[in-house]
């Protein structure tokens, strides 16, 4: 699934994101609102990932949907 699709269906995708990244709160998922850059930033912040690793994980997650 590409990021335009993820963003358009974010309400559905939030549960899957929560299952993958349990550290993210509902408020943070609402703030992310399906935007790749927002998700990457939160993954960096919550999991201490470098940007490239956070981008890779976000893209792998979206592609697996």
From TrEMBL:
The record ties this protein, via InterPro entries, to: CsbD (IPR008462), UPF0337_stress_rsp (IPR050423), YjbJ (IPR026042), YjbJ_sf (IPR036629)
- The CsbD-like domain covers 4-56
Record family assignment: Belongs to the UPF0337 (CsbD) family.
Q: What PANTHER family does this protein's entry cite?
A: UPF0337 PROTEIN YJBJ (PTHR34977:SF1)
Q: What is this protein called?
A: CsbD family protein
Q: State the organism named in the record.
A: Vreelandella gomseomensis
Q: Organism classification, top ranks?
A: Bacteria, Pseudomonadati, Pseudomonadota, Gammaproteobacteria, Oceanospirillales
């Amino acid at each position: 699934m590409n990021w335009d699709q993820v963003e358009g269906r974010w309400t559905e995708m939030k549960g899957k994101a929560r299952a993958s990244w349990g550290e993210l709160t509902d408020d943070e998922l609402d703030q992310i609102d399906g935007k790749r850059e927002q998700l990457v930033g939160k993954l960096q912040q919550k999991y201490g990932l470098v940007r490239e690793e956070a981008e890779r994980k976000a893209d792998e997650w979206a592609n697996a949907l």
